[in-house]
Amino acid sequence: MSKLKDSTKKILIHFSIILGLTIVLAFIFLQIFLPSYTNHGETVTVPNLEGYNYQEASKFLADRDLSYEINIDSGFNAEVKPFTVLQQNPRPGNQVKKGRKIYLTLNSRNAPLIRMPNLVNTPLKNAQEILANAGLIRGEIVYVPDIGQNVVLEQKFRGRNITEGFEIPKGSQIDLVVGDGLGNQILEVPRIIGMDETDAEFLIIGSGLRFGKINYIETDSVLSGTIIRQMPPAGSEVRTGEPIDVWISESKRFSNF
């Protein structure tokens, strides 16, 4: 019985020693070796490199114990010099370990080629949105006589007409030839005096002209809603799409006292 107790005591003593050593080694590993190996607590703030030339950026990073790598896929911004940092990862302000690699996206020297969209017969406002979405710049707008008001008639690159699908550098300037809404054709103004507003508008539009300013005149001698004056007058020669101003009769209202 005594031998059994002695054996058990020895086992417990050995177990306690092993457990104690394990705790000590774990403490040393977690609190001393591991933080030292991972540079625990030694972090730096990622600087903002966007807008820097990559040579300036590389020196900036080296001074802060950081490294860098250039992304294979570059970007392009026509307003920024080539090899300027456009994007970075991690983002500025992040806390990272010393020696961390910062991935940089640089502005390409040459603009990528894109296909020209079709702007012909498109309203000017829509054409401008299409150009912006395609990475192109709206250049000069030249108005020419045409019945299509603010409608794109031609799209030009470096003075030449270009068709849909033609490859041009991203960021290129596209000049637009746009209709002024008037046109070149000379028309004779029809007589609309004496007509009601609906019939007069139908005749004006059917003649290639358009309704201009509408004025109302109070009168008790002409049926209400009748055209009593027009400008330009009937028989005048005008261009296609020119407005015709009208004066329409309106019944007087008398108050009872």
UniProtKB/TrEMBL annotation:
Keyword set, alphabetical order: Membrane, Transmembrane, Transmembrane helix
InterPro entries the UniProt entry points to: PASTA_dom
Pfam families: PASTA (PF03793)
SMART domains, per the entry: PASTA
Domain PASTA intervals: 41-108, 183-250
Spans through the membrane: 12-34
Source superkingdom: Bacteria
The protein's name in its UniProt record: PASTA domain-containing protein
Organism this protein belongs to: Mongoliitalea lutea
